[in-house]
Amino acid sequence: MGYYYGDKNYVLDSAMIDDKGNFHYAGDSVLSGGLYFLFLSDKKLLLEFIIDKEQRFTIHTDTANLIKDIKVEGSPENEAFYKYQDYSATMYSKLQKLQDSAKKPAQKTAFKLRIDSLNTAMRKYKENFIKAHPDYFLSEVFKAAEDIDVPDAPILPNGRKDSTFAYRYYKAHFFDNITFSDDKLVHTPQPVFFTHIKEYFSRLTFPTPDSINAAADYILSKVHNSPDMFKFLVVYITNTYANSNIMGMDAVYVHMVKTYYTPKLATWVNASQLEKMRENADQLDPILIGKRAPSMVMPDTANIMTSLDSVKTRYTVVCFWDYDCGMCQQEMPKLIKWYDSAKVDGMIDVYAVETNINDIGKWKSYIKKHNLDWINVSNTFRTSNYSHEYDVVSTPIIYVLDEDKKIIAKKIDVKDLNGILKADMKMKSEKN
User: Fold this and answer.
1) CB-hemisphere CA count at 13 Å for 144?
2) CA pair distance 198, 187, nearest whole angstrom
3) What SS3 class is residue 262?
4) Long-range contacts: 389-395, Cβ < 8 Å, 24+?
5) How far is CA 408 from CA 214, 350, 375, in A?
6) What is the pLDDT of residues 179-238, one digit of tens each?
7) What is the β-pairing status of strands 305-307 and 297-299?
8) Using an 8 Å Cβ cutoff, are 197 and 236 in contact?
9) Other C-beta atoms within 10 Å of 247: how many?
10) Which of 39, 58, 157, 238 ranks highest by number of CB atoms within 10 Å?
11) Which residues, other chains included, contact 78 with Cβ-Cβ below 8 Å and sequence gap of 6+?
């Protein structure tokens, strides 16, 4: 016996079938509402059923003809569910036969009216069901699966149709049929609920942290007295963007943790884990894209204290590296080659922080051997807490700062530098 949760399936319990084909599940607590399923031992889906207000019921059927032979005792909603499944299977079979018959264009035209008629009958069935059983969970499922009908775009003063109307209307009404106050929707197959959430973020929300944060707040503002729904959405959004490969999405993680991971709201997280998450968010907050990079002052190879703020070029590439790091030995030659080809007076400089202070002699030898004619510093005097302030947990790590020392890129590869600088130059020239 299993249940759906967002985009995943989980096993809840198991039972042995006796020699008469009977099996029994029992528990001492109320099950969360939603759509559950049975699997046979060979992982073959046997049956879906609804758990809601009725938690004690019996289902009799025959594996030779599951739905047609089914009988339910103690759950009128499941009776209605199986009647719908039987009806849906019959209508789908008719549709399939019509579509298989319509091989040529002429046949497709001839069968179109019949196909439309079957689709209309299906919609009418669901509409009548919702009217007859407004309190059934199945009615919520039917409504959630309804498409948003977008009206014709209005005519603008210039006589043309508003080309952005369809998108704006669709997005504004996207959740009209979703009841965010019903925890049971979380426990449904993907197309019913989860697909809506995923589409809203991936297709209807501009892929920037500010837009995603606004979308998250908008959706979560719809959740009232639905702890499972709230938990699912908060965890899904937080984890999605915490693990994103898109640069800058840690801003979404920071926003979610600071806004929703509080003792009052995130009741599913224990106190120690909550504290770690909030500490992590506090650490990441100062180094989000667009914020001014933390100051650093460290000695160079001549032990002269050199600050990051003293670099006056238009762009500063900050590189945390280790002369004894295998990955650094692969990447540093690439950075040297890029710098030699890209440097222009007053345009670019590199502030390279050596993270390994065990053997300063080896560091200086590497600089001399490879002619690193940029700013080379190390934390020899331990004057900086850069590893915490810049979240340096491995090497090499590259940040890109503009002339105001604001972070425009971070934790990137050398191959991305040219594209990032060109994009920033273009954006700033368009603003001017």
Assistant:
1) 23
2) 16
3) coil
4) 389/286, 389/287, 389/294, 389/296, 390/287, 390/293, 390/294, 390/318, 390/320, 391/283, 391/284, 391/287, 392/320, 392/355, 394/327, 395/320, 395/321, 395/322, 395/325, 395/327, 395/328, 395/355
5) 21, 15, 20
6) 999 999 999 999 999 999 999 999 999 999 999 999 999 999 999 999 999 999 999 999
7) antiparallel
8) yes
9) 14
10) 238
11) 49, 50, 54, 57, 59, 72
Whole-angstrom Cα distance, residue 186 to residue 32?
A: 10
Task: Tell me if 36 sits within 8 A of 48, measured CB to CB.
Answer: yes
Residue 251: per-residue pLDDT: 98
Q: Tell which residue, 398, 405, 401, has the closest CA to residue 335.
A: 398
Report d(CA 303, CA 3) in Å as an integer. Answer: 64
Identify the band that residue 39 occupies on the pLDDT scale cut at 50, 70 and 90.
confident
What sections of 221-299 are H helices per DSSP? 227-242, 250-260, 271-284
pLDDT tens per residue across span 91-118: 999 888 877 776 666 666 667 788 888 8
For the chain, the C-alpha Rg in angstroms (whole number) is: 30
Q: Which two structure tokens, joined as six digits, stand for 290?
A: 């667009």
List, for residues 59-68, the tens digit of each pLDDT value. Answer: 999 888 888 8
What is the C-alpha to C-alpha distance for residues 144 and 229, in angstroms, rounded to an integer?
Answer: 15
Burial class (CB within 10 angstroms; exposed 0-12, middle 13-18, buried 19+) of 244? middle
How many CB atoms are closer than 10 A to CB 246? 11
**Residue 57: burial class (beta carbons within 10 Å; 0-12, 13-18, 19+):** middle
What pLDDT score does 73 carry? 97
Residue that is written with structure tokens 């669709």 in the block: 170
Q: What gap in Å lies between CA 81 and CA 87, rounded to an integer?
A: 10
